[in-house]
Design a protein that fits this description.
The protein has 13 helices and 48 strands. It is mainly beta and 759 residues long.
């Protein structure tokens, strides 16, 4: 639990007190986590800076521009100065109801001004946002978070205001554009300069910006003092007409609609078609339902949108109506027009035909007052006298619905025995929804599933009509929004696990899915599982806690993870890295590994070269007369010392004893440096120091260094075998020639010996 909390809130390796320039570093080895180190007893037993009595709220120092924002300057004061305290500056966005939502937070190391340049954070600040800030602090004592507190919130800050602008010429929208306002919002309002709106459209001679009408979200404003709410959505400019370029046209209606008589202003030299488009003459009427509108006429000629005849000054347009007859088939109604006295038999009666109904008779109603006129068996002899409703009377057909359920699907819910495997009669005339509603009351799907009904595997809707006998299937369908996918990735992980498994949201993963039984790889050390996103886990106190995706979770901890709705989880196995250390070959010598005769050594992450050569010795092969002096690296390296580490830069001299103390952090290339030297004196020195008393001593001599045994290689071993044979022959001749034989041996070794022997 301690590591879970700290991973979420804390990333600490050092602290700096800027007034006194005090600094402390935590040093860990590869088996110790940062959290473990932080919780070790501090080297300080006092608070570095005392608590302050006066607190200044955080501020943003400049206007917040959301267009190509690259940095954000702020000022903030630490809420707590205790040595074991953590401080965070939190940015919130306020919605229209002043409800805050956290955008992001940054860690505060000191009081004063700061700068945010992280684009991923800055991109969270959007136009039309109201921002506030506060500072949060908490103490960490013995692995626990204590004394959590928040400062008061800052004043409100506003981002640039963007708003939808619509410019209209009459009923026509000539501009629809999202614009950014110049002025900085203040106190929840923005002052709009008229030019900011007018610059997006230059009207023609028929319209102007003089006396235009301005509305903001439907409310009218004065263009010369246009201060709008910060949360406004839309500005509409209705341009004014230049009257000298317009002419009058009248539209007249029958007496029953005389209140619709209108005089329109029409652009001079406009055509009839343009008039129809511009004026949008009404074609729906509510006052009298006895008539149906037919169209507009000029001099008994019906006008259309394609009519290119020019409108004359003072021209009159007449609206024409026909008598309405309403056809009613019980489900839909259809309006047709007939002239008075026209026979009903001229109607197209196909509207009344229903595949699943038989027509028994017709009933006629007065459309104006819906009073019944009479029943008739056919329409042959009836004529239209006024506006009427003709309703067809039907006899319903009945069909059998057999309610069934697939045996496998039964596991995902329960069905009451009163409807299971039963047959029911239902009318074609009625939508099946009423019947389905009754069935649903006796069905309970399992969590994560919903009930659907199918006929021939096609989903049945409440509005559907049953057209024949059918099997109605009860089907429990998975509600995808209630399920998430959990995947485990890693080399060697079972494909079933890596492809993903589905499980219910808000559930421990060990209750529904298979968990990996291995780490997927044996060649590298397994460190833990890393998630694709922050996730929830059940702690020792049975409470659910948030865990950072950066935490490495062990295999036995996976079962405690709890899924969240709408968030798929993917856990990837993390292994200790293996770095390759290459010993470069030179013209005067090379270094190989004893086990595989290679010049490349593999070193595990956090291990030294010395750790990796304990079972795989380094073999040094210099040319005759050359001696290894030091190494150089192609990049900076860290070398372990007794109490810490030191850094040697690329190209600088690395002593042979330091090679074994290097801890690689990436692939590394080491180049050995050989210098020419004379070797004969070394053998004489060994003889003089009584290290070589006989020829056998010289041939069996073992050479050691402080770090490791240096093996001279295959070539020298072969040479030694030849020398042993020679010595046996020399022993047979005479023992008293030993000193001379040693001198001979020394001369034989010189041209073949691959390096200077070191003690």
């Amino acid at each position: 639990m301690k590591k879970t909390i700290i991973t979420t809130f804390l990333c600490i390796s050092s602290f700096i007190v800027f007034d006194n320039v005090a600094k402390a570093d935590y040093i860990t080895d590869y088996n110790t986590s940062v959290e473990d180190t932080v919780f070790q007893k501090s080297m300080f037993n006092f608070d570095l800076i005392p608590e302050t009595s006066n607190y200044s709220l955080p501020t943003i120092d400049k206007i917040i521009s959301t267009q190509n924002i690259t940095e954000l300057d702020y000022s903030a004061e630490l809420l707590s100065y205790k040595k074991n305290s953590q401080n965070f500056l939190i940015f919130y966005s306020l919605d229209e109801n002043k409800i805050p939502t956290e955008l992001f937070r940054i860690k505060l190391e000191k009081s004063g001004s700061g700068k945010i340049v992280n684009r991923s954070l800055l991109n969270k600040i959007k136009p039309n946002s109201t921002l506030i800030m506060n500072v949060m602090s908490f103490d960490i004592n013995n692995g626990k978070i204590e004394n959590t507190k928040y400062s008061k919130t800052s004043k409100e800050y506003y981002t640039q205001k963007t708003i939808n602008l619509i410019v209209k010429e009459g009923d026509k929208k000539v501009v629809t554009k999202q614009v950014t306002l110049i002025n900085e919002p203040k106190d929840g309002k923005v002052l709009v300069i008229p030019y900011e709106l007018e610059k997006y459209h230059k009207p023609d001679k028929y319209y102007s910006y003089t006396n235009e009408k301005v509305t903001v979200d439907g409310q009218e404003y004065n263009i010369n003092n246009l201060e709008i709410p910060f949360n406004a959505k839309e500005i509409v400019l209705d341009l004014a007409k230049n009257e000298e370029y317009w002419q009058k046209v009248s539209v007249t209606f029958p007496s029953i609609y005389k209140d619709k008589n209108t005089e329109y202003s029409i652009k001079k030299n406009s055509t009839i078609g343009e008039l129809v488009k511009e004026t949008k003459l009404p074609n729906e009427f509510e006052k009298n339902n006895d008539y149906t509108f037919d169209g507009y006429y000029i001099d008994d000629k019906k006008i259309t949108q394609n009519d290119t005849t020019q409108i004359k000054e003072g021209q009159n347009i007449k609206a024409v109506f026909k008598t309405k007859v309403v056809l009613d088939n019980g489900k839909d109604k259809k309006e047709v027009t007939l002239l008075t006295g026209q026979k009903l038999s001229e109607l197209d009666t196909s509207f009344f035909e229903k595949e699943h109904y038989d027509i028994e008779s017709y009933t006629l109603y007065n459309k104006e007052n819906n009073e019944k006129i009479k029943d008739i068996n056919n329409l042959q002899d009836e004529t239209v006298d006024n506006s009427i409703v003709i309703k067809a009377n039907y006899k319903e057909k009945q069909h059998t619905l057999s309610v069934r359920q697939d045996d496998y699907n039964k596991r995902f819910g329960r069905v009451d025995s009163s409807i299971s495997d039963k047959d029911f009669m239902w009318s074609e005339a009625k939508p099946v929804g009423e019947f389905l509603k009754e069935l649903r009351s006796k069905i309970k799907p399992s969590t994560g599933y919903e009930t659907v009904f199918r006929i021939n595997k096609n989903v049945v809707k409440d509005s559907d009509h049953i057209t024949k006998d059918a099997v109605l299937e009860i089907y429990f369908k998975k509600n995808e929004s209630d399920w998430v996918t959990v995947r485990f990735n890693g080399r060697g992980i079972d494909k079933f696990l890596s492809d993903g498994q589905e499980m219910l949201a808000n559930t421990r993963i060990d209750t529904m899915i298979n968990l990996p039984s291995s780490t997927g790889e044996t060649s590298r050390e397994f460190l833990g599982w890393k998630a694709n996103d922050d996730y929830l886990i059940v702690g020792e106190d049975s409470k659910t806690k948030k865990v950072s995706k950066e935490k490495l979770l062990q295999t036995n901890e996976l079962g405690s993870v709890v899924t969240e709705k709408g968030k798929d989880l993917e856990f990837t196995a993390v292994y200790r890295e293996i770095f390759k250390v290459e010993f470069a070959k030179t013209q005067v010598g090379e270094i190989l590994l004893a086990n595989n005769n290679s010049n490349i050594l593999e070193v595990n992450e956090f291990n030294s070269i010395g750790d990796s050569t304990k079972n795989n010795k380094l073999i040094i092969y210099p040319r005759s007369g050359y001696n290894l002096t030091h190494f150089i690296a192609d990049k900076n390296v860290k070398v372990k010392t007794d109490n810490s580490t030191k850094e040697i830069f690329a190209g600088q001299k690395i002593e042979e004893e330091d090679i074994y103390k290097i801890i690689p952090t990436s692939d590394l290339k080491l180049t050995p440096i050989f210098e020419y030297s004379l070797c004969p004196g070394n053998l004489n020195e060994m003889i003089e120091n009584n290290k070589i008393k006989t020829v056998e001593d010289a041939l069996t001599l073992e050479f050691e260094s402080k770090e490791d045994i240096r093996i001279l290689g295959n070539a020298f071993n072969k040479m030694v075998e030849k020398l042993k044979t020679l010595m046996e022959m020399m022993k047979l001749e005479q023992k008293q020639k030993r000193e001379a034989e040693l001198l001979v041996m020394q001369e034989q070794i010189k041209p073949h010996f691959v390096g200077c022997l070191k003690i």
